[in-house]
Write a structure and sequence with these properties.
The protein is α/β, with parallel strands linked by helices. It has two domains: 104 residues, Urease, subunit C, domain 1, CATH 2.30.40; 307 residues, TIM Barrel. The protein has a six-stranded mixed β-sheet with strand order 2-6-15-16-17-18, covered by helices on one side. A four-stranded mixed β-sheet has the order 4-3-1-5, with no helix packed on it. A four-stranded parallel β-sheet has the order 7-8-9-10. Bound molecules: zinc ion.
Length: 451
């Protein structure tokens, strides 16, 4: 079959995430980038398609490294709209425990559609609810990801420490260790793709120190090592969690992580807020990744992740929108703006540039997921792109197009490409009836809360 060669020419601005010049655009052959062009340069070989990007800012497809898709059904729920993490969770657990396969399918479609429209091409999800009838939750999500043509790191979450044993979640929401581990193994064997261009990957993700046993943490680390997949969990999100770890395990969070064999480069953590200097140095030396979720951290008043210190220590850092019950949006370009603003509050304006934050949302996030084939624009990488126009009122009078994306608050991509295929054209997702999805999702959300 003849190769499809697409020339994306002369962008208004382009961010390659690696300091290379691509002001003349780039050339894509099938699913990969094959050439970056300097100003005035033309492709080395004839192209079958040409897209004139003079009105577009071109970015590598954004990569989201923490979410709970199912939570799109419980956004802005009045009883917890102004609660911190623990009471927020305790009120929501019984609601979430009623989740059905059909509701999860709709919730995942909504979360992924929102992400895609915000310029995201790869999304990680952390799913840890498997009530009766929803044993195949991850299988449901795989289908949704395939339908939308995005890439995903679906993490098989777990909860195994219920209230009866000192944990936070109600007993009926936790699973036995054997069930968790055998389902994890099944999912890896069935779905985990390896190598460049992978669409679906599986990670193992016990939920948090206060909802799983040490045994499941240890066993997950061993299984991840054996199967060569990644490990993910929530850590150091709140001071309540730190107090829980001291009380339950007699350890601070990083000591606990170390004690169960998780302090290494296979692991990426959501939040990572409450670390002392020594802990930051240990995480950096171990190469353990941190996903910063600024909106969620502000919404629940959890604290500010020390991104600059973590990065200086050598820890990979990236971004995540977190579950939609604590954000409550799934918009990754807006999340990058939040990261810029929040981190400036901590480290000053000069230290946190738009380019640095866009680097977290792309190359940094790719590192968290252990991927070398996405997150930057250079020959050999996958053709995952997000293109934004700056023609809305909010951009009028702006000068630097890259800075304008974050400072003026871009919230929607005009075009998105995944592996050489356009998934969003003129701000619309190919093959998805958003109005219909929204109607069904709204019904599902009200049913979940009134059941
Ligand atoms: Zn989370």
């Amino acid at each position: 079959m003849a190769a499809t060669r697409i020339w994306i020419s002369n962008p208004l601005a382009i961010f390659t995430a690696n300091d290379q010049d691509a002001s003349g655009g780039l050339v894509i052959e099938n699913d990969r980038i094959v050439e970056l062009l300097g100003a005035g340069q033309r492709p080395a070989h004839p192209c079958t398609q040409h897209f004139d990007a003079r009105e577009h800012v071109v970015l590598p497809g954004l990569i989201n490294t923490h979410h709970h898709f199912y939570q799109t059904l419980t956004r802005a729920w009045a009883p917890v709209a102004s609660q911190p993490l623990f009471p927020w969770l305790q009120a929501l657990y019984p609601v979430w425990a009623r989740l059905t396969a059909e509701q999860l399918e709709l919730a995942s479609q909504v979360a992924l559609a929102e992400l895609l429209l915000s310029g995201c091409t790869t999304a990680a999800d952390h799913h840890y609810l498997f009530p009766d009838g929803l044993e195949q939750a991850i299988d449901v999500q795989v289908e949704v990801v395939r339908k939308l043509g995005m890439r995903a790191m679906l993490s098989r979450g777990s909860m195994s420490l219920g209230e009866a044993d000192g944990g936070l979640p109600p007993q009926h929401t936790v699973q036995d260790a054997e069930v968790i581990l055998s389902d994890s193994q099944r999912l890896i064997q069935r779905y985990h793709e390896r190598g460049d261009g992978a669409q679906i990957q599986i990670a193992l993700a016990p939920c948090s120190p206060f909802s799983v046993t040490r045994e499941i943490m240890r066993a997950s680390a061993e299984l991840a090592e054996q199967e060569d997949v990644r490990l993910h969990t929530h850590l150091a999100e709140t001071l309540d969690e730190e107090a829980f770890c001291l009380r339950q395990f007699g350890l601070r969070t990083v000591d606990y992580l170390d004690s169960v064999g998780w302090l290494g480069p296979r692991t990426w953590l959501a939040h990572g807020i409450h670390f002392d200097e020594q802990e930051i140095a240990r995480l950096g030396a171990a190469g353990t990744g941190i996903c910063h979720c600024p909106s969620s951290n502000m919404r629940l008043a959890s604290g500010i992740c020390p991104m600059d210190a973590l990065e200086a220590a050598g820890a990979p850092v990236g971004l995540g929108v977190d579950g939609s019950a604590s954000n409550d949006a799934s918009n990754l370009i807006l999340e990058a703006r939040q990261a810029l603003l929040l981190q400036r509050l901590r480290y000053g304006a000069a230290a946190i540039t738009p380019e640095r934050v866009l680097g977290w949302a792309t190359r940094g996030s790719a590192r968290l997921l252990g991927r070398h084939d996405i997150g930057e624009l250079t020959p050999g990488k996958q053709a995952d792109l997000a293109l934004f126009r700056l023609d809305e009122l909010r951009f009028s009078g702006s000068h630097d197009p890259l800075a304008a994306l974050l400072l003026c608050g871009a919230d929607r991509a005009d075009r998105v490409m995944v592996g050489g295929r356009w998934r969003v054209l003129d701000g619309q997702i190919e093959g998805l009836d958003v109005a219909r999805l929204q109607a069904l999702h709204r019904q599902a959300a009200s049913k979940l809360l009134t059941a």
